[in-house]
């Protein structure tokens, strides 16, 4: 299933080639202060492919906090955090914000809360390597 997504102004756009069950996409609402304040609800499938197109890379800001193991990619024009990346052993993994989806009905999103409190860095990186999108290209 091809999922198209973009920030509000379209500066950050992506194509997500979803290989999971297309009738039930996990939508994890992270409980951290950044995601709560920005409405970040994330999804990924490790066998999916993500192609990100940046119209103007200079209008994309990056934010890291806490463990500094994840980079939020935020459109500086409209303020939408569209995707997050994590570098593990020289390889990029990512999750995307379901609130940026253009062609997916809300009825197939399976919203669940997510909390990673107490997770140490090795466990966090192992979880991301196991669950996040592993085929990521940004242009």
Number of discrete helical segments: 2
Range of strand content = 35-45%
Helix content: 10-25%
- Read across the widest sheet, the strand sequence of neighbours is 6-7-8-9-4-3-10
Can you offer a commentary on this structure?
The protein is mainly beta. It has a single domain (2-138), classed as Metal Binding Protein, Guanine Nucleotide Exchange Factor, Chain A. Helices cover 12% and strands 43% of the residues. The chain has two helices and eleven strands. It has a seven-stranded mixed beta sheet with strand order 6-7-8-9-4-3-10. It has a four-stranded mixed beta sheet with strand order 1-2-5-11, with no helix packed on it. Strand 6 and strand 7 form a beta hairpin. The longest helix is centred in the C-terminal third of the chain and has 11 residues, at 121-131. The mean pLDDT is 94.
């Amino acid at each position: 299933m091809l999922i198209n997504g973009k920030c509000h102004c379209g500066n950050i756009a992506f194509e997500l080639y979803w290989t999971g069950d297309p009738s039930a996409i996990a939508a994890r609402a992270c409980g951290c202060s950044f995601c709560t304040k920005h409405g970040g609800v994330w999804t990924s499938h490790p066998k999916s492919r993500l192609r990100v197109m940046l119209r103007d890379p200079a209008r994309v800001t990056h934010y890291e906090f806490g463990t500094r193991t994840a980079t939020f990619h935020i459109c500086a024009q409209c303020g939408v955090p569209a995707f997050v990346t994590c570098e593990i052993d020289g390889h990029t993994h990512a999750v995307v914000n379901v609130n940026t989806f253009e062609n997916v009905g809300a009825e197939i999103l399976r919203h669940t809360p997510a909390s990673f409190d107490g997770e140490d860095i090795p466990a966090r990186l192992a979880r991301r390597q196991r669950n996040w999108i592993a085929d990521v290209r940004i242009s």
